[in-house]
Every structure is written in C-alpha cells, then in structure tokens.
Amino acid sequence: xxxxxxxxxxxxxxxxxxxxxxxxxxxxxxxxxxxxxxxxxxxxxxxxxxxxxxxxxxxxxxxxxxxxxxxxxxxxxxxxxxxxxxxxxxxxxxxxxxxxxxxxxxxxxxxxxxxxxxxxxxxxxxxxxxxxxxxxxxxxxxxxxxxxxxxxxxxxxxxxxxxxxxxxxxxxxxxxxxxxxxxxxxxxxxxxxxxxxxxxxxxxxxxxxxxxxxxxxxxxxxxxxxxxxxxxxxxxxxxxxxxxxxxxxxxxxxxxxxxxxxxxxxxx
Length: 268
Ligand code: KIV
What we know:
Layout: H1 9-18, E1 22-26, H2 30-39, E2 43-46, H3 50-53, H4 65-76, E3 83-87, H5 97-111, E4 115-117, H6 125-133, E5 138-143, H7 149-152, H8 162-178, E6 182-186, H9 190-199, E7 204-207, E8 215-218, H10 220-223, H11 241-257
Parallel strand pairs: 1-2, 1-8, 2-3, 3-4, 4-5, 5-6, 6-7, 7-8
Bound molecules: 3-methyl-2-oxobutanoic acid.
3-methyl-2-oxobutanoic acid binds near residues 26, 49, 87, 207 and 219.
C-alpha cells in the first residue's frame, strides 16, 4: 500500500474536522496486528495493557521499556496502513524529562513506531514538552489512568465530582496547548467526554467515555472475549473466543487421545 493511504496524525485531525469517527484497538504481536490493519483500523495502540493480557500481571506497572519495544517491533512489522502508537511504560517518563525523551527515542528508533502515549496532565508536562522537541508525536491519556491505580485504589469511573471533572478539563486543554496530537479519555461520564471533545480541536478517543467523543478504543482481547472476568459496562464483546478456543483445544485433545488425529491424509 502506498504512503499516501497511510494514516498520520494529520489524517486524524482531518477526520475530527470532518466528523468521521476514529477507530483504535490494541495489538501486541505480529499476527493480530496483521489482521487488525488489514481490517482497516485507523490506529493500533501497543498498550501497556500487554502487562495484563499478555504477561498476566494484575496491573500495568511491571511491564518494562524493553518489553514494550519488543511488542512494538512485532506490531510494526505487520502493518501497512494504520498509525501505531506505543505506550511509555510506568517509570519511564514520570519525574525526569530527560529519561522520558530517551525512552520515547528508543521506542521510535528501535521499534520504528509512529507516536507515543503517556498518562497524566500537568504533572508530566515537562516530559511531554521535551519529547515533543524531538519531533515525536505524543498522545495524552486522562481519566482512569491505570499506571496510577495505587493512588486511585479502584478502577471505578473517574471525574464524577465537579472538582475532578474541572481538573480533567484543565489538563485536557493543557495537553492540547502543549502540542499533543490526540487524547485518550478512560472511564469518565459521557457528558464530560462530550464537553472535552467539543472543547478541544485535537481528536479525543474514548474507552468508557461515551458516544460523543471523536473515536473509540478497546483492548483487543476484551473485544474478542478472550478474558472472561473483565466485564465493565463500556465493553462490547464481538466474539466469545475463550469458549471457541477452549472448545477447539478440547476437540484436539480428544482427537489425539482417540487416534483420530492425524489420519491417513494428514501424514507423509
Ligand atoms: O494500555 C492500554 O491498552 C490502554 C487503553 C486502555 C487505552 O491504554
């Protein structure tokens, strides 16, 4: 596919201006990224949710920069069209903007990613500014920010109270002013999602932020129904792959035990 058809940060801006909704999904490996890109997704996020769905950690905190780069490299090898955004992992950008820039440069150079995403507002402004000076596009992330889970204590809906909602709006405007090209809003009231999307000129992509934002993102494993235990209200499952895969594996085991597999046609 030619470069002209590739999705860029500029394309996303045009989509917002035209009122066209932006689609975004996570991917962490070559095979899944191939399918998602081929299906026509606008953005693949190599999310630090890999820490949960790939590595089995309870939170996103343990995943390392090296591991994020490994996942990003696998995804980048697969794609022809979409924009690939990679999460800066916990500990790689908070409190030290030089470290943040060097982490972002490693992601861009070693994985050949197109942009990075990081969580937080004014507390990470220095890191955002420094990353942007290197010409690296930055996507913000506000609302429920899973890297701060031990500060929140729970994964419940954020910014329901006026004070927190006001802080979120201020942070969203700051991220736009700093030069972020887009913003993810996670698990906030739909009315607040609408207010932020209307107030900003950059695209606002929601996960549990209602129907009025400029685009939607889901974790691919959740969309496919691979995780049985994760059931937030915002999740729409398009498949029940847990049952399908389990059924296929059970059938395979039965076929091996009964000597049905392999048959005469399946051998040399
Ligand atoms: O890591 C991730 O998958 C994310 C999405 C939930 C937006 O940040």
